[in-house]
Design a protein that fits this description.
The chain is α+β, with helices and mostly antiparallel strands. The protein has 12 helices and 18 strands. The structure holds guanosine-5'-diphosphate and manganese (II) ion.
């Protein structure tokens, strides 16, 4: 789950990562006016959306007076930033910036550890800095065995010194990095990013922005992350929202072939073969273990309700749920869903796949196209999507 900036700053604050003084979360221009009066004279008016690059898109404005904060809010509410509509604005007392740095920590799956990235060149696109001036970007992997008691201050200092952070801020920035690491572990984040991390005119080091991704698999340890489910910040896509409510693992993608399968690995491989066949997947949907008619019907109904989907590729590997049960589930789901224009290309493998395929062939359902292999199924699904 991604947090918006102000939520990330709240999370930082309670874990001793220094942030600017608290601001106000506003949903109307009137609320912004009141907040700017109280927090000003100089405030910064910031769009709260789950994407970066708000500054460039006109979603971040420093307002020298409350009147200018109101004018900024009028421009920013309703703004579309990379497909995200601005419903919420955060008004914060403006910080006086002397320097901007970059700091982030993320999971490094290959190393089975953490990757810390630090740069003296912050406030700009870090990918760009990495391209044009790679020496300015310091990357260090840390293993869990090196961070049993948290990130050692010496290690933090060493990373920042190598990134050429100025001597006068090294102690503060090192303490901040140690706290940031603590926040990541305590809150089960997979990514924490601060861009820019600033040195203020009065020489304090603060997180001026935040990007935090929490690990959905750890939600149960944090009351389901309910505290972060806030009105106006919902996932933009209605199908993704519906899937979440139904407990279906669904991610919307850009293409036209609906994809569903069992197991995240198999579904990812399915996306690849669809791409190899010259098509592109409309979604990632993992029906998980088992393939009951109920799960199949719910999942199919979700995929088919997407108007972009012109064919569907169902890719199931029979395990405990045998091939003939999967086939029966698909046929029953089709009957329950009634008429729909898209064809379902079905590839079964694993336990009793033969029997499952035989059942599908026998049934001769007008919507179901059995396929023998994954690549054949992908070809068929892509052809059908094109000709639809
Ligand atoms: P992003 O564009 O989505 O990454 O949003 P940021 O929160 O990083 O803000 C973009 C830029 O606005 C920052 O890099 C700063 O240069 C500027 N900015 C943000 N907050 C303040 C502030 O309190 N004071 C000043 N002077 N500039 C700010
Ligand atoms: Mn930023």
């Amino acid at each position: 789950m991604d947090l918006v900036e102000y939520q990330g700053k709240q999370l930082f604050g309670r874990n001793d990562v220094p942030v600017p003084p608290p601001g106000a979360v506003c949903r109307t221009v009137e609320e912004v006016a009141a907040a700017a009066q109280e927090l000003g004279p100089v405030t910064v008016v910031k769009a709260q959306v789950k994407t970066g690059g708000r500054g460039k898109a006109g979603g971040v404005k420093v307002a020298p007076t409350p009147e200018e904060a109101v004018a900024a809010a009028e421009d920013i509410f309703g703004l579309d930033i990379k497909g995200h509509t601005v419903n919420v604005i955060y008004v914060e007392p403006a910080s006086d910036i002397a320097e901007e740095y970059y700091l982030s920590i993320m999971h490094d799956r290959v190393a089975k550890g953490y990757l810390v990235i630090a740069s003296k060149e912050g406030g700009v696109d870090i990918e760009e800095v990495n391209r044009t001036n790679p020496d300015a970007v310091v990357k260090q992997t840390l293993l869990p065995s090196e961070t049993v008691d948290g990130l050692p201050t010496e290690t933090a200092r060493d990373i920042l010194a190598r990134a050429a952070f100025p001597d006068e801020v090294l102690d503060q920035a090192a303490d901040l990095l140690v706290a940031l690491f603590g926040a990541m572990v305590a809150e089960d984040a997979t990514l924490v990013e601060i861009n820019p991390l600033i040195r203020s005119a009065d020489d304090r080091v603060l997180a001026l922005d935040s990007k935090v991704t929490l690990d959905d698999n750890a939600a149960f340890r944090h009351d389901g992350y309910e505290e972060w489910e806030v009105e106006g910040l919902e996932v933009a896509d209605p199908l993704e929202r519906q899937a979440k409510e139904q407990g279906i693992q669904y991610v919307k993608l850009d293409g036209e072939v609906g994809v569903l399968g069992n197991g995240a690995g198999l579904v990812m491989a399915t996306l690849d073969v669809v791409a190899q066949a010259g098509g592109s997947a409309a979604d990632f949907l993992d029906i998980g273990g088992g393939a009951s008619a109920d799960v199949m019907a719910e999942s199919l109904s979700l995929v088919l309700s997407d108007p972009r989907v012109t064919s569907v590729f169902i890719n199931v590997f029979g395990g405990i749920t045998r091939g003939e049960q999967v086939a029966a589930g698909i046929l029953e789901a089709c009957d329950r869903l009634g008429d729909f224009p898209q064809k379902l290309v079905v590839r079964l493998d694993g336990t009793n796949a033969e029997q499952g395929r035989a059942l599908l062939t026998e049934a001769d359902h007008p919507s179901v196209v059995p396929a023998a292999t994954m690549s054949e199924a992908a070809q068929r699904a892509v052809e059908l999507a094109r000709s639809a």
